[in-house]
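Work Package 4 report. The design task specified in the project plan requires that, given a folded chain encoded as structure tokens, an amino acid be chosen for each position. We show below one input record used in the internal validation round.
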């Protein structure tokens, strides 16, 4: 699905990411752990294609195409969806506008979205400006619901579980389960959506299976392994312990 090879990224002349190598196959969801300022959001912005994030070396290959040759809108059209940690308020644009865009001339899509609006109790959000006068939890819910509507091939989530109460977390977890769930394609082969989830607490990982996790420190991947095992180590001993544990394992191999 997506392969990041030897990625180096600078911002305003300063290198933020160094030698990043991540491969997420079709049907897999991976997690990315790391402290604040470690480069996680920079990685997301680079995948999206924000111009201030300058790739000095490496490649980002999505379904065989090098994303570095494409603009932001072209990457989105390929099927890359991003739910931001702090999405902006969009004055003058209602959630209904986005729904109408995706369901235009597509009755099947319109029926699906209508079902999801009721399922996730989004009726009160439809005719409000996006993220205007919403609580933190409501903003997260609205942002994830836009991914439900878009149904991207590859989903990137930046801290979907930060700063929200357990009730909203449960609702968001249900939405993500719906986005990522397995479906049969035209060849009757069961497939699952792919994704990359950035999380500090790991609470969101209780709602769906993650296949692999990475730990980013100082702009580099310091550890790769089982998501639950890594999360437990981080919670009990901290990030450095997890990286040192990985180094010790390599020494004895």
């Amino acid at each position: 699905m997506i392969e990041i090879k030897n990625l180096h990224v600078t911002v305003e002349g300063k290198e933020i990411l160094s030698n990043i190598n991540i491969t997420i196959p079709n049907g897999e969801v991976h997690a990315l752990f790391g402290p604040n300022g470690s480069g996680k959001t920079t990685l997301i912005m680079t995948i999206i294609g924000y111009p201030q994030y300058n790739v000095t070396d490496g490649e980002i290959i999505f379904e065989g195409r090098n994303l570095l040759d494409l603009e932001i809108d072209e990457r989105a059209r390929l099927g890359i969806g991003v739910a931001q940690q702090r999405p902006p308020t969009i004055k003058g644009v209602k959630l209904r506008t986005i729904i109408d865009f995706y369901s235009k001339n597509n009755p099947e899509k319109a029926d699906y979205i209508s079902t999801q609006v009721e399922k996730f109790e989004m009726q009160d959000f439809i005719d409000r400006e996006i993220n205007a006068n919403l609580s933190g939890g409501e903003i997260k819910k609205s942002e994830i619901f836009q991914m439900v509507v878009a149904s991207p091939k590859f989903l990137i989530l930046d801290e979907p579980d930060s700063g929200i109460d357990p009730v909203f977390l449960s609702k968001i977890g249900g939405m993500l389960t719906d986005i990522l769930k397995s479906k049969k394609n035209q060849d009757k082969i069961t497939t699952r959506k792919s994704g990359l989830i950035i999380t500090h607490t790991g609470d969101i990982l209780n709602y769906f299976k993650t296949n692999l996790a990475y730990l980013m420190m100082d702009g580099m991947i310091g550890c790769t392994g089982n998501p639950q095992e890594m999360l437990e180590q981080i919670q009990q001993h901290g990030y450095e312990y997890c990286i040192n544990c990985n180094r010790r394992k390599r020494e004895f191999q």
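Helices lie at 40-48, 72-77, 95-103, 107-119, 136-150, 166-180, 227-237, 239-251. Validation will be extended to a larger panel in the next phase.
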